[in-house]
Predict the structure of Globin domain-containing protein.
Amino acid sequence: MVAWTDEERATITDIFGKLNYEVVGPNCLARCLIVYPWTQRYFPTFGNLYNAAAIMGNPMVAAHGTVVLHGLDRAMKNMDDIKATYADLSVLHSEKLHVDPDNFRLLADCLTIVIAGQMGSAFTPDVQATWQKFLAVVVSALCRQYH
């Protein structure tokens, strides 16, 4: 179990309070699909993912990006037991979808970049450290089924 300080909890809650889920989620997933094109293989039903413009304009990418961000919101609301919160998702991604667990880290990195761009100077080194700690716990929880 991860120990969270009151300041870390407040920082994570503050970040989520500032997020526009319908912008950040789609931009994060699109960035991941563009920068790491091998991740596209997990989305065979999304249609045209042949170039950056197609990915950025794909409504299925946008919708799933928003779903991912809302799923991450669950971790923020359950910071004391993120592993249990994501137990079912870990099983789904491991046993049914067969997602390479390293892709969770790649998506987390893309999310950090998008949020840093949105927050600008408010994304201080301390805020970034707290955010990356939070994402590391989420990624670990999603990878739990793989261990």
User: Anything to note?
Assistant: The chain has one domain: 6-146.
